[in-house]
């Protein structure tokens, strides 16, 4: 059995340490976020979606699916995004490509499709509950940004 020479052991230890540091981090800096605000409105009408007051707009990073941002919809259809990453919230959003969905007040992943359909009847089309089906995509630049989320009944 061939053993590593004593000169190679520090290099091997250093290499393993670097890999572990890269995987688990060591107080790694959180990426910089930038303010993002927006409005939710009906497509082609420009009017806010009043029945969604208290609901949320949620954006999910395309590059890092565990990173998402959420904003509560105000009385006038406006929202401001906050990023959630590893259980920590940060004002603003990390630049990148995102897909979005709109969640009505009281929305829950556990709610049945039938219950969701009843709650959304006449408000928004149920496809807007899904990142995959909504068709809502945004590119957030490293600067203050305003977006418009347009939904259909």
Q: In a nutshell, what does this entry contain?
A:
With 153 residues, the chain is α+β, with helices and mostly antiparallel strands. It has helices spanning 8-24, 113-120, 131-134, and strands at 36-42, 56-61, 68-72, 78-80, 82-85, 88-91, 96-103, 137-140, 145-151.
Please supply descriptive tags for the structure shown above.
Immunoglobulin-like, single chain, 9 strands, 153 residues, 19% helix, three-stranded mixed beta sheet, 31% strand, alpha+beta, six-stranded antiparallel beta sheet
Written account of the structure:
Strand 5 and strand 6 (88-91) form a beta hairpin. The protein starts with 7 loop residues before the first helix and ends with a strand. With 153 residues, the chain is of the alpha+beta class. The radius of gyration is 21 Å and the shape is globular. The chain contains three helices and nine strands; from the N terminus they run H-E-E-E-E-E-E-E-H-H-E-E. The protein has one domain (36-151): Immunoglobulin-like, CATH 2.60.40. It has helices spanning 8-24, 113-120, 131-134; strands spanning 36-42, 56-61, 68-72, 78-80, 82-85, 88-91, 96-103, 137-140, 145-151. The strands form two sheets. It has a six-stranded antiparallel sheet. A three-stranded mixed sheet has the order 4-1-9, with no helix packed on it. Residues 7-25 have low confidence and may be disordered.
